[in-house]
Amino acid sequence: MRNYLMIGILFAWVWLPTAAAESLRVTINLTSSTDTLQRDFAYTLLDAALRHSAATNDVIKVERFPVRMTQSRLLRALRENTIDVAVMASAYRHENGLFAIDFPIRKGLLGWRILLTRQEHVAALNKVRTANQLRQFSTGFGSDWVERPLMERYFAAVESAADYKSLYQMLANGRFDVLSRSVMEVGAERQEFPNLGIVDASQIIVHYPLADWFYVNAGNPELAQRIKKGLLGLYANGEYERLFEQFYRQRLQRLRLADRHVIELSDPSLNLDAKQTTQPWWFSLSQQ
Would you state the pLDDT for residue 118? Predict the structure, then answer.
């Protein structure tokens, strides 16, 4: 769905039978983001899930393959079996030809959004208390990111760009007023662009139910089941929580999320079943 959203983590899996065990080789691509934490978490989690669901003597080998794709190319590659696994937003769960593994690999952090702006808009943004009040601002968004209709619903105008780097430059140049980035992305990205005069509206946060999931081709249900089994096992034994804390706890604490006013956005095309979003592996501010 985007740099991180399109965290195009791709996998090519090959089974290499041996006399005593099976070997699974998994190749992962680089993401469009320069944030190594984002890239490494999905890599580490997939590796751990595959190892957890493997037989005792199986050999698991996870390798990175430096291929970057836009969201549209990522979807096409998955459908055509050019790749076997991708990380994409949960809103793609109804796409034909895909099998969604319905476990929010980052606890739904994708839907918790920090609003970035220029200094002249900070005071007005921090006074916003309802979703309707966002309509006084324009925003920028990726041209093929899945939440674009949501942005068009709540903001006065939406400017398009191919990637997040272009959006930061456009915001700095006054092309629009507000740029929303997820809490898992914003810290590293602001370090990437330290001299653009972009600031955080630090008293508010926008939320909508959206997560990133692992996806496989619809013709690979066995691979999907193996990944899902491993993820649930990691959650049950505490390893998932340990990994999440290791990668994201400090980043979330620096944003002081519990001190912010939450603005809820809704769109039927994004909403997940209530049963899904109330599962314990979804992030909530009470965890802060």
Answer: 97
Question: Distances from the Cα of 242 to the Cαs of 41, 188, 202, 231, in angstroms?
Answer: 12, 21, 28, 13
Strands (E), 91-170: 98-101, 112-118, 139-142, 158-161
Give the start-to-end residue ranges of the domains of the chain.
12-108+211-255, 110-207
The DSSP symbol for 268 reads T
Distance from C-alpha of 254 to C-alpha of 257, rounded to nearest angstrom:
8
Flag whether pLDDT at 177 surpasses 60.
yes
In sequence order, the 6+-apart residues with CB closer than 8 A to the CB of 114 are 180, 181, 182, 183, 186, 200, 201, 205, 255
163: its two tokens: 């990637």
Q: Which H or E run includes 26?
A: strand 22-29
Secondary-structure breakdown of the chain: helix, strand, coil percentages, each rounded to the nearest 5: 40, 25, 35
The position carrying tokens 């272009």 is: 166
Alpha carbon distance 112, 118 (integer Å)? 20
Mention every residue, 6+ apart, whose C-beta is less than 8 A from residue 271: 209
Task: Give the separation between CA 86 and CA 205, rounded to whole angstroms.
Answer: 28
In the predicted structure, residue 60 carries a pLDDT above the cut 80: no
CB distance 285 to 262 below 8 Å: yes
Contact (Cβ atoms closer than 8 angstroms) between residue 9 and residue 43: yes
pLDDT tens-digit readout, 195-234: 999 999 999 999 998 998 999 889 989 889 989 999 999 9
CATH top-level class for 110-207?
alpha beta
Q: Is 181 helix (H, G, I), strand (E, B) or coil?
A: strand
Write down the CATH number for the domain with range 12-108+211-255: 3.40.190.10
